[in-house]
Every structure is written in C-alpha cells, then in structure tokens.
Amino acid sequence: MELYTLSARELADKIQAREVSAREVTDAFLACIERVDSDVRAFVTVTAQQARAAADAVDARLAAKEEVSSLAGVPIALKDNLCTTGVETTCSSKILRGFVPPYNATVVEKLSAAGAVSLGKATMDEFAMGSSTENSGLFTTRNPWDLTKVPGGSSGGSAAAVAAGEAPFALGSDTGGSIRQPAAFCGLVGVKPTYGRVSRYGLVAFASSLDQIGPLARTVEDAALLLSVIAGHDPGDSTSVPRSVPDYRAALTGDIKGLRVGIPKEYFAEGIATDVREAVTRAISVLEGLGASVGETSLPYTEYALPAYYIVAPAEASSNLARYDGVRYGHRTRNAQGHIDLFEKTRDEGFGDEVKQRIMIGTYALSAGYYDAFYLKAQQVRTLIKQDFDRCWENFDALITPTAPSAAFGIGEKTDDPLAMKLSDICTIPANMAGIPALSQCCGFTESGLPIGVQLMGPPFSEETLLRLAHAYEQATDWHTRRPSLDKK
Questions:
Q1: Residue 35 belongs to a domain
Q2: Inter-axis angle of helices 353-366 and 305-320, nearest 10
Q3: Letter string b/e over residues 238-269, b meaning 16 or more CB atoms within 10 A of that residue's CB
Q4: Active-site residue 14, yes or no?
C-alpha cells in the first residue's frame, strides 16, 4: 500500500515502530503533491527542503532512541493564514505577497514541538472570505472528487490537499463554516473547536470574535489526534481559555448508548437538497441504532444567523484589515502621489472584490449613526442565537444537521449570485455565532459521486462528545474509506 494512502495514525505507528522512516513518508507525500497538484492546486507554497530537514531530525531522534510525540514525522498542510517563520504567508491575497512573518503561530509552534512535518501552505479564499476558494487572489483550487467542482471554502486548499492524498491531515480556520463546509464537499472530517479552545495567536484575523483554528482529516481518530496537540491555553491569546485539554483519542470508545441527539427542524427546511436530506436522515438512523436517543427540537432564531453574521463578520474584518496600508508590510503601490493616495491605491490593487465589498459593508455598519442600527442589533441577535442553543443543551448532548444545503457545486456556478454563495454556509454559521464546537463528517454520496456532509454541534467544550458520536458513526459505515480517483494516479 502506498504511504500517502495511510491515515496519520497509521503513519505515526509505522514511524514509531521504525517500519518506515519519517523521510520516506515525507518523500511519499511530496511526490504525490508533484504528481497531482497541477490539477488540484491545493498549495500556495511547498516547503520541500524544510520538510525533509524536519523529517531527518525525527529520524535522528528515533535512531538515538529518544522519546518522540505521537505526531513525530507525520506530514501536515497549513492554511496560508497561519504565520510561519521564514515562509511566506499570503492569505491568498496580492496585498500580502512577499510577507514573511518573523514568528510562528502558536499552533505551528505546537506542531513543530510535536515533530510534525509541515509540507507547505494551502490556498484559501482571500483573507478567509468565501465559501468556494474562488475568491483566492492567486488561483482557484479544484475538488479532487470532480475537478469541475469547488472544494468549498475558505479552507478549500487544506481540504483538497487531504482529499487528494497530498497530506494526511491539515489545519484550517473556521469563521462561518470554513473548515466544516470544505470537509463536507471533500468527504473529510472537519472540526471547529469551541471559541477559545485553540489559540488564535499568529492566525491572520478575519473576524476576531468568530475565527477558530481546527483540523481537517480523513478519519475521526486523526482529527482527535491533531486537536489534542493544538488545543490548550495560550497566554499570547487573551481569548484563549485556561482549561485543561482532555485526551480526545480516549473518547473514541464506540459506545454512544444514552447520548441524547437533537434534530433542529429549522435545518431540514426548504433549500436543503433531497439527496442531502436523505443521507443525513440515514445517518440519524445509524446513530439511533447504535444506542443514541433521538428527538426533534427547535432553534427559532436560526433564520437570523446569516444576516446577523454578515454584519458582525464584515464589521470586524473592516477593523482588522485597516492595518494593510502599504507602509508596514505587504504590497505597496508604485504610483502614489502622497500618503492618502498611497493607502487608497495600495488597497485597491491588493484586495480582491469580495474583500473590498466586506470592508465597505463593515465600515458602513460601524459608522456613526448606523452602529446601533446594524452592529449592535446584530450582536443582540447573536445573543438570542446562543440562548437558543443553551436551551437545547438542557435536553440534548448534541445536535445533528446537514453541513451544507448541497454537495459541491460547479466552479463559476455561483460567482454571479452572491446570495446563493453565502447560503452555502447557512447550516454552519450559527455555531460560530454561538461559539460552540461543531464537526462535519461524510455521510454518503450523491448519484454523481460527490460527498455529502453531516454536522454535529454540542455545548461549549464538548468536543469529546462530538468526536465520540462521529467515531461511532464512522465505524458503523464505510464512507470514510472511499478515495477520489486522483488518489490512485
């Protein structure tokens, strides 16, 4: 069996047992990238030299019989909004071309300390603003299951890399569904942790009260393994919660008897594709057959999540992106006449249309005379959404819904319809607004062979429960064993 087809846990076991070297594993994935990425286009930057050096360091430690972590020698792809010392970080934006951070994001430091091998930086929608990776300022990534389809967004490059066998797992970021929706479109497991569970230090900010870093993987066990490494308190992030990190792999017992799973009726309303609805309904039956108790519930403020999000997120983006002015780092126009002209032309040349649109919406929402009517009102609605979820946790341990209204759509299919594009995240946005953990995994395929995702949501810091449910479902089905044909080239 080819090394690039193995799970991260299987690779880790082989490396620890000295059945294969970390260098051999790294070379296998670099070869896969070279073979298929011209079609998929998942990577902005491939750091082959650094990856081989990191792998050699792991092999040297193993040869010296030193103790290494469970991730030592396992390759990983990093979304290109995570700062990496000495490696360009672009956020797939022209305005950050040439920006090389002087420090690592906390999650990158943790991965490095664990001996994980970074293969490079994965592409994304520019500054994480998008649902298809078509908003990248560099190039469009393609779905490995069908190269005419999008991989989802904004973590489309991370998801496509894992699905195509270019990395065993990856890190993404999730502001309104940007881990879970690509996971659904690419047939993967994607986890958005509780807000504050994983440090955001070194994550280039989109919307600071919504952003969260999390894993994309082929299996629930791999996602649990990665989350165990990156989770935990970080003094460098004031929103990071000082709470101990459980052993997420230990939660994968396969026993879900007695767990209460709620079905929010609002997530199965008009607009959910028939094949998606049927696949999720079958997944609910599987969980019920495994011993979970299932019942209907309601989240009445769900319908307001999307409009409230598109006030809160652009407002915070407007504030966060004000720093890109051509003075300190990144792109700087060569045709400026004075400092105001410098700012205007730099931002006009460097930002793409979607980013400009969201900056303008956010600036308007925060402006004098409109703050109370828009931003404040959206935050009040956000509180109501959270209270909806809080009431559900009185009766249920988790909620189950579709991850996205449909399977992956065609490249260019929704670029002229901004509302249809934004509706792609209608099932995922509420979890970000409430700050709760959520997970997506594959629960079936369409007739044309595209993956369908099912979403689990839980109370704050209930990642163990979500992983436990997801793992039990995964072991009872075989969806996670399927691979796109690109994998076999």
A1: yes
A2: 100
A3: eebbeeeebebbebbeeebeebbbbbbebbbe
A4: no
pTM: 0.96
Token pair listed for 251: 């939660």
Distance CA 42, CA 28 (A): 17
Asked if residue 317 is part of any domain, the answer here is no
Residue-number span of the structural domain to which 220 is assigned: 3-265+392-488
The answer as to whether 113 is a domain residue is: yes
CATH number of the domain encompassing residue 254:
3.90.1300.10
Q: Specify the number of domains making up the chain.
A: 1
- Annotated active-site residue in 136, 178, 318, 406: 178
pLDDT in tens, the chain (489 residues): 699 999 999 999 999 999 999 999 999 999 999 999 999 999 999 999 999 999 999 999 999 999 999 899 999 999 999 999 999 999 999 999 999 999 999 999 999 999 999 999 999 999 999 999 999 999 999 999 999 999 999 999 999 999 999 999 999 999 999 999 999 999 999 999 999 999 999 999 999 999 999 999 999 999 999 999 999 999 999 999 999 999 999 999 999 999 999 999 999 988 899 999 999 999 999 999 999 999 999 999 999 999 999 999 999 999 999 999 888 888 999 988 888 999 999 999 999 999 999 999 999 999 988 999 999 999 999 999 999 999 999 999 999 999 999 999 999 999 888 888 988 899 999 999 999 999 999 999 999 999 999 999 999 999 999 999 999 999 999 999 999 987 443
Q: Is residue 271 part of a domain?
A: no
Reply yes or no on whether 112 is catalytic.
no
Q: Which of 92, 131, 154, 228 is catalytic?
A: 154
Q: Which of 7, 21, 79, 422 is catalytic?
A: 79
319 flagged as catalytic: no
